[in-house]
Amino acid sequence: MCGPHVIHKARKTFMTASGHTPETPGGTITAERPDPSARPVGRSVNRRRMLTGSAAVGAALTGIGALGGPVESAHAQTIAGINPSQLRVTDLTHVLHNDFPIYRPYILDPNIFQFASIAEDGFNALKLEIDEHTGTHFDAPWHFNDSPDALHTHEVAPSDLVCPLVVIRIADRAARDYDAQVGVVDLRRWERRNGRIPQGALVAMDSGWSARVLQSEEAMLNRDSDGGAHFPGFDIEALVWLLTERDIAGVAVDTPSFDFGPASATNPEGHVFLLGENKYAVEMVAHLETAPETGAMAVVGVANIRGGSGGPVRLLALT
After folding, report:
1. Would the keyword Hydrolase be found if you checked this record's keyword annotation (predicted)?
2. Regarding beta strands 181-182 and 233-234, do their DSSP bridges make them parallel or antiparallel, or are they unpaired?
3. How would you classify residue 164: left for phi > 0, otherwise alpha for psi between -120 and 50, otherwise beta?
4. Among 256, 206, 269, 262, which residue's Cα sits nearest to residue 230?
5. Hey, how many other C-beta atoms are within 10 angstroms of the C-beta on 77?
6. Which of 80, 101, 199, 254 is most buried (most C-beta within 10 Å)?
7. What are the backbone angles phi and psi of residue 90, rounded to the nearest 5°?
8. CB atoms < 10 A from the CB of 183, how many?
9. Quick check: pTM over 0.90?
C-alpha cells in the first residue's frame, strides 16, 4: 500500500530496468471495459486453467476421477492425492473485526456494526464498512495495473482460484532478520525436497508473522524510529523466476504486503511486476505453519466484487 506518486515511480523504475517502455501515468479507467473473453490473448493471460473451483471441491469431497473436461496435470495430481473420506480443511484466514490491525495510513479502520436485530427488526444483520485490502485479502491485477486488459476482482478466472498450494518456510530466518525475503535459492531448495513447483500454483511464504498480526498492529508493522515498516516478503528476482520459469497463479504472504517492509511503501516493484502480469496475491494469510509444504489444494474464496482491486478472502487448504 502506498501513494500514487510512489506507485508511478516504482512502475517507471521497474519497466525501465526490465526493458519495457514505461507507460504514461493515467487516472482511473472510466470507459466501458471490453468483454474479457474478447481481449487479445497475451503471454500472461492465455493460460487459463480449465479446472473450475466447484469441480475441484467436488472432486476432493467425492473422489470423482473425471472432472468433465481437460485439467492441468498438477491440479489433477493434487486432487488425486486427497482422500475424500479423510478430507482435512485448514482455514488460513484471520477473523476480521473492528480492532484488526491495518497498514496505516493506507487502510482505514474497519467499521463493523449491527444495524438490525431480531428484537427490533425480526432478523439479525451487520453492516460492513471495510477497505478491500483489510484482513486476509486479495490483490487483483488492477490494484497496481491500469492497462486496458488488467483484471478486476470479478474477472479473475475461477480456475485460477483453486490451485496447488506451495508453502515456502522462512520463519527461522525471519525471526533473526525482519526484512528477510523469499529468494530463488529458497524456491530451488523447496524443489529439491518436493519436486517442481506446479504450473498454476499459489506459492505462499510462511514467515511466522501470523503471531505478530494477532499480537498488535505495532508488532505487525514493526516500525523503526523513522516510521518505516519491517516485515518479510518476496524479492523481485523470485517473483520473476516464478512467472517466467514456473507460470504460477499467484503468491500469498502472512505479512501486510508481499513487497517486504521497507519496499512496501517506497518501491513496491513486486506489486508492479506481478500484478502487471495479471497474476494475483493474497496478503495477511493466517497460520501457514499449519499447512503442508506440498500436497494441499488452495481455495481462494475472494468476494466477487465487480470492478474491484481486491477484496476479503476466506482462504482454505484442502488435504
Report:
1. yes
2. parallel
3. beta
4. 262
5. 13
6. 254
7. -105, 125
8. 17
9. no
What is the separation of C-alpha 259 from the centre of its chain, rounded to a whole number of angstroms?
12
How is residue 122 written as a grid cell?
425480526
Helices 73-80, 53-62: axis angle to 10 degrees equals 30
Rounded CA-CA distance 87/297 in Å is 11
Domains recognised in the chain with CATH numbers:
43-98+131-318 (3.50.30.50)
The grid coordinates of residue 286 equal 493466517
Dihedral of the CA atoms 170, 173, 175, 180 (nearest 10)?
-80
Residue with cell 482455514: 91
Residue-wise pLDDT tens digits, 43-90: 333 333 333 344 444 444 443 233 334 445 677 778 778 887 889 999
- pLDDT at position 2, please? 53
